[in-house]
Amino acid sequence: MYYAGYPEEMRSFINANPGLRSRFPQSNFIQLPDYSNEELIKIAEQIAAENDYILTEESKIELHHRLDMERVDDTFGNARTVRNIILDAIFKKGSEISVQDRDILQFTLLNKDDFVVDKKKMSESATDQLNRLIGLDSLKEEMKSLATFVSMQQFRRKKDCQPFQYSCIQFLQATLVLEKRRLPKYMPSCFENVEF
């Protein structure tokens, strides 16, 4: 029997049940490294080919950039992420090209533009993205409070005032809440205009 998943989550899963822990000792754990971008692009080519599409050289370069953007935290899904990107590009292409008076080649080539992330989505701040999520009201309020507190600390420093003494426990608590909810990518971005 095999179990696969993110390392920390799998340790928690195994440790949560003493019966499992005795059947799956640590010596049986295998840590698999993430694929390199070059390997992921080969996987992308294979997924595209399985769907009767071909990646242009320019699209491979853009896909490489896109993979770098996607690797923000431990939730990066390797081949799963690539599969989702390729399928999104295929759907995007299908929704943008008119069938009338088009060459079939237009429908089989995935170009650079098919992998460019929506500029509106990119320009949206992490705080706005977090606020668009349903629920999580207490988390949203905590993030707003922490950002305001840090901004005030910066303001006091710039005015040569003594900043309030505080510990990083609040920041640690917010990070743990975000990690638990698998939202760690919002944490650093909510503080991107804040100097520590």
Automatic annotation (TrEMBL):
The keyword Kinase does not apply. Keywords: ATP-binding, Nucleotide-binding. Residues 58-115 form the CbbX AAA lid domain. Coiled coil: none annotated. InterPro entries: AAA_lid_6, CbxX/CfxQ, CbxX/CfxQ_RuBisCO_ESX, P-loop_NTPase. This is CbbX AAA lid domain-containing protein. It comes from Neobacillus pocheonensis.
